[in-house]
Amino acid sequence: MSKASRYGRNTIADKLLLLGELSLLIGSSLLASFAIHHYLYIVAIEHRLINAALFAASVMLCALSVGLYDSKLRECHKGILKRVVITLLFNAILLELVIFQLFPSLHIGTLYLAAASAIAAISVSSFRALFHYNDITSISRRRVLVLGSGERASIIERRMRRNVDKRNFEIVGFTTIDGDKNAGIPEHKLQNFDYKTELYQFVVDNKIDQLVIACDERRNMLPVEHLFKCKTRGIDVIEILDFIERETGQIAVNLIYPSWVIYGNGLDLNQRFKTSLDYKLNLVLAVLMLAVTWPIMLVTALCIYFEDGKKTGTSVFYRQIRVGFDGKPFYILKFRSMKPDAEKNGARWAVTDDDRVTRVGRIIRKYRIDELPQIMNVLSGEMGFVGPRPERPEFVNQLAKDIPYYNQRHNVKPGLTGWAQLKYPYGSTAEDAQEKLKFDLYYIKHRSLMLDLMILVRTVEIVLFGKGR
């Protein structure tokens, strides 16, 4: 997989969106500073430019944290406006309480920041509406031909039906290959031509950018000479596994075959975070987070104690055995969010609107406050900030039997947050566990400092909008 597609394909439309918003944010800052200058005091142009760059960078970081740069974001204009407003509020807090406190010489004034934020809210929201209304993403969509119309190819048809799933590409059609099983792909989406003799010509005539190999039976079925000719002419030829990985940010567990795992790129951790550096980075983050969140943790502990802890004598904390790195068990520490007798009938999946959850528990689970004591697990080296969520042994034993490659998620330390939590909503079934595994394997394959930082920043979105757990 190329670097350009590693964290999602950088299309022309994506670049236009980023450049457009960057220009609008810089313009908003400069316009506000010049307007305020007219009534207040003279500010040097160099000072204005530095503030404009700082304002734009800070806003874009906050926008990332609330999901505004998520390529799969599905929001109406009202939802986009809401996220823009939250972004600008976060930005004001970040600048006023952190940046300008550290560098007071950069501070033009609170009135300037308010004016810049107001102008940015109007201009960015309008730009987003115009961008999506005119479907600017269409200018850089790849034209894709799927070689196959059987069970493997039908996964593309089933999983990528929405426009937001196909923002980077356009499916020209599916080509039936000998050996394909009937999977019910609509007739109007099938391309009827002799793929053995006419594939290259069809690709040229229809301006195909990419061929996806998705046939059920590959042995002696594919027109190798035509594929070679397409490849040498600059047409991208890609496996369905790699295609799904690139476009969805997950690995299709049900399509994996051993040679793909063994010979494919990624999944080798010897040069990544399996070193003392991993622990040192997590240690620093844990200490900083503990310093910031201890008042919240204290208030939470008191609320749990007065709700039922004082009456029952049950601890405000909850220790539960989980499966960690290399499959080794450890005790995870959380704030107790359920009643003392929640598991009197044995372990079971937590579900939405679970009647075992206390009143305080509903609040702290919604905003993930119940996870804060796991900072102690990070300090002890049992967990990291980013990684697959650790599961209970009772469930792991069964899931490992039912889901191929499930135990591979234990090749890295479990985390407080992760790629699956960003990409998948709250899940409480074995089917949900399989879907999350697809994202966990993607994370393991692409694990890097930049990806970890991006997940940490975007965890704010999980807390604010309750996307997953």
From TrEMBL:
Q: Where in the cell is it found?
A: Membrane
Keyword Membrane: yes or no? yes
Q: Is Transmembrane helix given among the entry's keywords? A: yes
Q: Kindly give the Pfam families that the UniProt entry links to this protein.
A: Bac_transf
Membrane spanning residue stretches? 16-37, 49-69, 81-103, 109-131, 281-307
Mode of membrane association? Multi-pass membrane protein
Using the record's annotation, list all stretches that form the Bacterial sugar transferase domain. Answer: 281-464
UniProt keyword terms in alphabetical order: Membrane, Transferase, Transmembrane, Transmembrane helix
Q: Which InterPro entries match?
A: Bact_transf (IPR003362), EPS_sugar_tfrase (IPR017475), Sugar_tfrase_EpsB_2 (IPR017464)
Give the family this protein belongs to, as stated in its UniProt record.
Answer: Belongs to the bacterial sugar transferase family.
Q: Record's PANTHER family?
A: COLANIC BIOSYNTHESIS UDP-GLUCOSE LIPID CARRIER TRANSFERASE, UNDECAPRENYL-PHOSPHATE N-ACETYLGALACTOSAMINYL 1-PHOSPHATE TRANSFERASE-RELATED
This protein's name: TIGR03013 family PEP-CTERM/XrtA system glycosyltransferase
